[in-house]
Specification:
Elements (H helix, E strand, L loop, with lengths): L3 H26 L1 H19 L6 E9 L5 E10 L2 E9 L2 E4 L6 E6 L2 E6 L1 H16 L5 E8 L2 E3 L7 E3 L3 H6 L8 H14 L5 H14 L13 E2 L6 E6 L6 E5 L8 E3 L1
Parallel strand pairs: 3-7, 4-8, 7-9
Antiparallel strand pairs: 1-2, 2-3, 4-5, 5-6, 10-11, 11-12, 12-13
Length: 261
């Protein structure tokens, strides 16, 4: 008599391992995982190379503004020489863009993807810090790309590939803030930052969704739209047949979720 239990267990074992493997690979390729890795690399690089007695670092800071919206900042470096607001991008391939373009382009494996100009994205972070800290000076925007990417156009002086931003931060020598001002600002940021965790991430995503469309359903370029299915960033695309603009998931073709503009 056949032992079906034994046969079933022998069949299920390999399929279960394959299932787990697919799940792990999908997660590693996800935009969320790439974002986490990018922030980790920048945080580690800053910790190792910036003098902790001069530069104070905060990472993954979510702030609630007066209009109840939230903004999430990858990294903030505070010093007497200025406050540096760092936006990280973990991307591969060729990167095309300029300072004032609303959209930049990633070219990889023969495909082109449009994404929001990270300098414009970081502008909202700068304005949020001005509001929270009550200052209008000494705030500097930095964008750094991690991953195997290559700039194919001339980039602004505050956009870097890898750890070049460290030298940029250290090049500022003129003192703008006193030690007491720095201590006060650090206390304000730590007290007004939302507690890290899923609840805060959900609140931020809900805030983005509620503020990313105006009453006329017009897409705001200074906001991130998060895919409701896989939590990747939504990007603006064009229907080749109709010419209609719409939002498509950046994880396409793995995720085919779309939204109307």
């Amino acid at each position: 008599m056949l032992d079906f239990t034994s046969i079933f267990s022998q069949l299920v074992g390999p399929f279960f391992i394959l299932f787990i493997f697919v799940i792990v690979i999908s997660f590693i390729k996800s935009a969320k995982f790439k974002g986490v890795i990018g922030e980790f690399l920048v945080n580690t690089n800053s910790k190792l190379r910036l003098d902790s007695s001069i530069y104070k670092r905060l990472s993954n800071v979510t702030l609630c503004l007066e209009d109840v919206s939230t903004t999430q900042i990858d990294h903030i470096v505070l010093s007497r020489f200025g406050i540096f607001v760092i936006e990280t991008k973990n991307m591969q391939g060729w990167i095309f863009g300029s300072e004032h373009q609303k959209r930049w382009t990633q070219s990889i494996y023969g495909k082109k993807n449009s994404f929001q100009n990270p300098l414009l994205q970081n502008y909202r972070h700068i304005k949020a810090l001005e509001e929270i800290l009550g200052i209008d000076r000494g705030l500097y925007s930095i964008v750094t790309f991690v991953g195997e990417s290559e700039f194919k156009t001339d980039m602004p002086s505050n956009v870097f590939n890898g750890g070049g931003y460290i030298g940029y931060i250290e090049s500022f020598k003129e003192e703008i803030f006193s030690e007491s001002e720095l201590t006060k600002m650090l206390d304000v940021l730590e007290s007004k930052s939302l507690v890290r965790g899923r609840a805060t991430d959900k609140k931020h995503i809900d805030s983005l969704k509620s503020t990313s469309f105006s009453s006329k359903n017009t897409y705001k370029q200074d906001q991130k739209i998060i895919c409701s299915r896989c939590s990747s960033v939504m990007v603006e695309r064009v229907n080749k047949r109709s010419g209609e603009h719409f939002l498509g998931c950046s994880s396409y073709p793995r995720c085919r979720h779309t939204e109307k503009l």
